């Protein structure tokens, strides 16, 4: 368990030092450290065996085209599935790091949030979707610059890794809307309504979705159970309401602030309203990444003394969230094992 803290915090510190010294070398070392740590894992994570099966049956696989091509290339080069994990990690974190470098007001804080507050851990399991998420994260610039054509191309590429990304075309039209403090009643209703109305039952009536709630479908029942809201989400809900309290001040910081606020609130809405429904929770993961850009903006609202206190609180918070994730025995994250052999 300790190895996660050492590697991830070391990578965060390298990102900080690289920003202070303007060292591209240290930035790359930080990126490679995270990528290799994720990519060299061996039977770590819930979906590890699933991806070994995809690779073993790649000639008959119906997985998304871009991911299938990567698997086929690696297979024909005589490399094994371990190289698939490594390449996937390099793609994912290269794009995350590029996005952070371009848009974050505090590189250390953004990298720390990326690695400690759930995103890194999630990326170890839903590999294809996290490649798509990282492509979307990198493509935020096309929403900011209002370049619809390039954004659609970006989403088309993301969709070639995970079909759910096609829905992100709608994000272009939603994220720049001035919803403002209407998010407060929206989030309150989204969180409270499922306690009153049987939301799952409504979805169970939709043709094609009833399978997700069938008592005989063990896989989907387990997935929905794993989508239940826990301490990690509730803490993010608290962060969201704190940002709403300072909404106007955050909005005045830059034109991107509105996009980051809307993105993170969409995440909170999806997980609040569609709790216990893994299909929609997985859609919310695309917007969880806005946290790594929003929090540095949130910090700018305060003076240096308050900012220092918030830094300490968020570091403790990140360490606690990582611990909660690692203690989840169903996640199969501990012990951490690795394999460096890339050949059959």
Q: What would you note in describing this structure?
A:
By secondary structure, this protein is an all-alpha fold. The protein has two domains: 1-166 and 331-344, no CATH class; 175-301, no CATH class. Helices cover 69% and strands 0% of the residues. It has helices at residues 2-21, 24-39, 48-56, 65-76, 81-103, 107-116, 119-123, 127-138, 140-144, 148-159, 171-174, 183-196, 199-204, 218-226, 231-245, 247-251, 256-273, 278-288, 291-299, 304-326. Helix 2 (24-39) runs antiparallel to helix 5 (81-103), helix 12 packs parallel to helix 17 and helix 15 (231-245) crosses helix 17. The longest helix has 23 residues, at 81-103.
What labels would you give this structure?
mainly alpha, 2 domains, 344 residues
Which helices and strands, and how do they pair?
Layout: H1 2-21, H2 24-39, H3 48-56, H4 65-76, H5 81-103, H6 107-116, H7 119-123, H8 127-138, H9 140-144, H10 148-159, H11 171-174, H12 183-196, H13 199-204, H14 218-226, H15 231-245, H16 247-251, H17 256-273, H18 278-288, H19 291-299, H20 304-326
């Amino acid at each position: 368990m300790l190895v996660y803290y050492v590697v991830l915090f070391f990578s965060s510190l390298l990102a900080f030092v690289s920003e202070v010294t303007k060292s591209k070398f240290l930035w790359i070392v930080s990126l490679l450290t995270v990528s290799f740590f994720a990519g060299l894992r061996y039977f770590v994570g819930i979906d590890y065996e699933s991806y070994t099966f995809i690779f073993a049956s790649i000639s008959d696989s119906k997985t998304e085209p871009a991911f299938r091509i990567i698997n086929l290339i690696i297979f024909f080069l005589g490399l094994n599935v371990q190289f698939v994990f490594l390449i996937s990690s390099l793609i994912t974190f290269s794009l995350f790091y590029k996005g952070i470098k371009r848009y974050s007001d505090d590189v250390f804080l953004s990298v720390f949030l990326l690695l400690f507050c759930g995103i890194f851990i999630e990326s170890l399991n839903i590999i294809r979707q996290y490649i798509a998420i990282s492509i979307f994260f990198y493509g935020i610039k096309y929403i900011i610059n209002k370049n619809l054509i390039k954004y659609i191309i970006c989403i088309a590429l993301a969709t070639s890794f995970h079909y759910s990304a096609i829905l992100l075309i709608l994000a272009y039209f939603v994220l720049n809307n001035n919803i403002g403090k209407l998010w407060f009643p929206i989030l309150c209703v989204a969180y409270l309504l499922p306690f009153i109305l049987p939301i799952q039952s409504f979805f169970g009536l939709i043709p094609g979705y009833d399978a997700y709630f069938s008592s005989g479908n063990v896989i989907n029942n387990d997935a929905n159970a794993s989508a239940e809201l826990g301490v990690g989400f509730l803490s993010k809900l608290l962060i969201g309401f704190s940002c709403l309290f300072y909404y106007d001040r955050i909005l005045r910081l830059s034109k991107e602030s509105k996009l980051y606020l809307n993105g993170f609130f969409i995440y909170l809405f999806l997980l609040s309203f569609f709790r216990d429904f893994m299909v929609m929770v997985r859609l919310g993961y695309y917007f969880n990444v806005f946290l790594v850009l929003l929090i540095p903006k949130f910090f700018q609202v305060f003076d240096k003394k308050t900012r220092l206190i918030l830094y300490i609180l968020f570091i403790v918070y990140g360490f606690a969230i990582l611990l909660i994730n690692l203690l989840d025995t169903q996640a199969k994250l501990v012990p951490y094992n690795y394999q460096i052999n890339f050949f059959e």
